[in-house]
């Protein structure tokens, strides 16, 4: 299942890490990097406790504002305004 299939469904992705030459440390670093990029650590932390719908809405609104500001900042930098 992917994002957008159903509102409360888990997104299932298969993460595959290849262990080369029995180098487990390198494989763990690669796994952590992939999990960080996917946002899994943030999601696990968020799912530890119940989040009230009003808190969830406020958090999502704040995240949208942050994204919009970041996009505007990048756009201004690209156009040479900053």
From TrEMBL:
It comes from the Bacteria. Residues 67-76 have a biased composition (Basic residues). GO terms for biological process: translation. InterPro entries: Ribosomal_bS21, Ribosomal_bS21_CS, Ribosomal_bS21_sf. The keyword Lipid metabolism does not apply. Residues 48-66 have a biased composition (Basic and acidic residues). The keyword Transferase does not apply. PROSITE patterns: RIBOSOMAL_S21 (PS01181). Residues 48-82 are annotated as: Disordered. GO terms for molecular function: structural constituent of ribosome. Keywords: Ribonucleoprotein, Ribosomal protein. GO terms for cellular component: ribonucleoprotein complex; ribosome. PANTHER family: MITOCHONDRIAL 28S RIBOSOMAL PROTEIN S21, SMALL RIBOSOMAL SUBUNIT PROTEIN BS21M. Belongs to the bacterial ribosomal protein bS21 family. This is Small ribosomal subunit protein bS21. It comes from Hyphomonas atlantica.
């Amino acid at each position: 299942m992917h994002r957008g299939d159903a509102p409360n469904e888990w997104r299932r992705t298969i993460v595959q890490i290849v262990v080369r030459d029995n180098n487990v440390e390198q494989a763990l670093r690669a796994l952590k990097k992939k999990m960080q990029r996917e946002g899994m650590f943030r999601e696990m932390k968020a799912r530890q406790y119940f989040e009230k719908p009003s808190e969830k809405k406020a958090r999502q609104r704040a995240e949208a504002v942050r994204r919009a500001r970041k996009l505007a900042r990048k756009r201004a930098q690209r156009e040479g305004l900053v």
